[in-house]
Design goal:
Helix content is 59%, strand content 13%. The chain has one domain. The radius of gyration is 17 Å and the shape is globular. The longest helix has 28 residues. The chain is α+β, with helices and mostly antiparallel strands. The chain has a three-stranded antiparallel sheet, with no helix packed on it.
Length: 143
């Protein structure tokens, strides 16, 4: 969709993901270690030039790995037909510069805080919220 077309955003599509309880149980029993392994592998791949695209793809999908959270999709109309697409992203060059200057280290801090919050039952919803924002904190990817 571009700004000058006849597109009209209706809202967001319902997410096809399990409820909060299932997400929390997944995070507690599977997500914390699977996410830790995925994060470690992603950061190792990011160090190599060849593995960078795969590493960033893993980091951008951490919400799914950690807590079974799916991306937001926008529902729009165009010339009378209805369509669904993912959220608009910042330009690639902006995301690449952000990742090189800030995202690679900030995502580590961000995930450390999220992991610390997830060990308490009371702060687990905040941890899940932080997990959803991990792609944005890493590469400015809207999730």
């Amino acid at each position: 969709m571009n700004e000058l077309s006849n597109d009209r955003v209706i809202g967001t599509a319902p997410r096809r993901e399990p409820g909060c309880l299932i997400q929390a149980l997944w995070l507690i029993f599977v997500g914390w270690w699977a996410g830790g392994i995925a994060t470690s592998v992603a950061w190792f791949l990011n160090v190599t030039i060849i593995g960078l695209p795969i590493g960033l793809a893993i980091l951008n999908n951490l919400p799914t790995i950690l807590a079974l959270q799916s991306p937001v999709q926008v529902v729009y109309t165009r010339y009378g037909s209805i369509g669904i697409q993912e959220l608009r992203q910042y330009p690639f060059i902006v995301r690449a510069i952000y990742f090189l200057l800030i995202g690679w280290w900030w995502s580590g801090v961000w995930l450390s805080i999220a992991y610390a919050l997830s060990v308490t039952i009371i702060l687990l919803p905040f941890a899940l919220s932080m997990v959803r924002r991990t792609p944005f904190m890493t590469t400015l990817k809207r999730y």
